[in-house]
Amino acid sequence: MDLDAMIDGVRGGKRRALARAITLVESARSEDRKAAAALLDGVADPRRQALRIGLSGTPGVGKSTFIEASGLMLIGQGRSVAVLAVDPSSTRSGGSILGDKTRMPQLSRDPRAFIRPSPSQTELGGVARRTREAIALCEAAGFDVVIVETVGVGQSETIVAQMTDIFTLLLAPGGGDELQGVKRGIMEIADLILINKADGDMKAQAERTRADYAGALHLLRRRDGDPEGFPKALSVSSTEDAGLSQAWEEMASLADYRRGTGHWDRTRAAQSRHWFEEAVRHGIVRHLTADAATRARMEDLGRAVAAGETAPSAAADRMIEHLFGRD
Ligand code: GDP
Question: What is the pLDDT of residues 154-178, one digit of tens each?
């Protein structure tokens, strides 16, 4: 498929073209990077904006069940849904535990849905770029909702929050004192905390957990430009389809509010600027390490630091001087 056909296909919402386009942006080969840049420019259309939802939760909390049930509900409401995954763990495990089609059997068969498993990853910086570009492609393809799924392991949440409009954290009933070890940082970026599995024997426990989190969220400062009541904690059951429509209404109403205040546009602009600066930083490092003499110098200094001959910061100063000279 040549580039023009790919651009037309993506813009026409064709699944096959979109899948190929994402494969292209996932490639790290330099000739593919050039084509990917032309592709992204070619499909860009600021009038097409999806609602980008970041969704995080530890394995077993019910992410795929929630996405499957929510996706089918959204499709039933006439919306199209794309699901992407950020899985920094797959370098080690060698396979993806997220965004797997077999985890969402009904949704993956629906022509109005698009599910993309996460590729095997090399470095976190690469994960961010590929995911961001995959989001842009899904948006250009006209999807109404793009769900970016991630497993709750810390760094990936921050990355996902920087490329989505609304961040939702999925938790299981239970918890207590340390609130299930959810790091304060994740609480601070969450717009919505959903206590899943609020059904059967776990219903009462889910409600207590919800109240605990609602209390904890109340202590966090409301974010500038957000309405009263956010961030919010709700309980849902993905298997019984309870509370899901309310959860999505909350996300939609928060998005509408932010659009109305201009907060939405400002956040997206700040995100774009952030990723531009990150890409420049990555590019600089890539260029520098491509140079054999620079790599050798890094290696020498690294050895000296490891042997305790030089302090890390002094060695870093010498490396910077070597690269850029004295000021
Ligand atoms: P993931 O690893 O976060 O994607 O979790 P899964 O969606 O695979 O769910 C893990 C297990 O929890 C499965 O056995 C699900 O059937 C179950 N589960 C998911 N959502 C619910 C729910 O709302 N209620 C109950 N009772 N079980 C659920």
Answer: 677 888 999 999 999 999 998 654 5
196 pocket-lining for ligand 1 (C-beta < 6 Å)? yes
Using DSSP, state whether 212 is helix, strand or coil: helix
- Please give the structure tokens belonging to residue 172: 């299981």
Residue 62 tokens, joined: 């019910």
**Ligand 1 near 65 CB (within 6 A):** yes
| C-beta of 117 in contact with ligand 1 (< 6 A) | no
Q: Check if 129 has its Cβ closer than 6 Å to any atom of ligand 1.
A: no
Cβ–Cβ under 8 Å, residues 73 and 125 = no
Q: Is residue 267 part of a domain?
A: no
Element (H, E) at 34: helix 30-43
Domain of 298, in residue numbers: 274-323
The residue nearest atom 5 of ligand 1, judged by CA position, is: 62
- pTM of the entire predicted model: 0.89
Helix (H) or strand (E) segment spanning residue 232: strand 232-235
Here the CATH number for the domain that contains residue 236 is: 3.40.50.300
Query: Do the domain assignments include residue 268?
Result: no
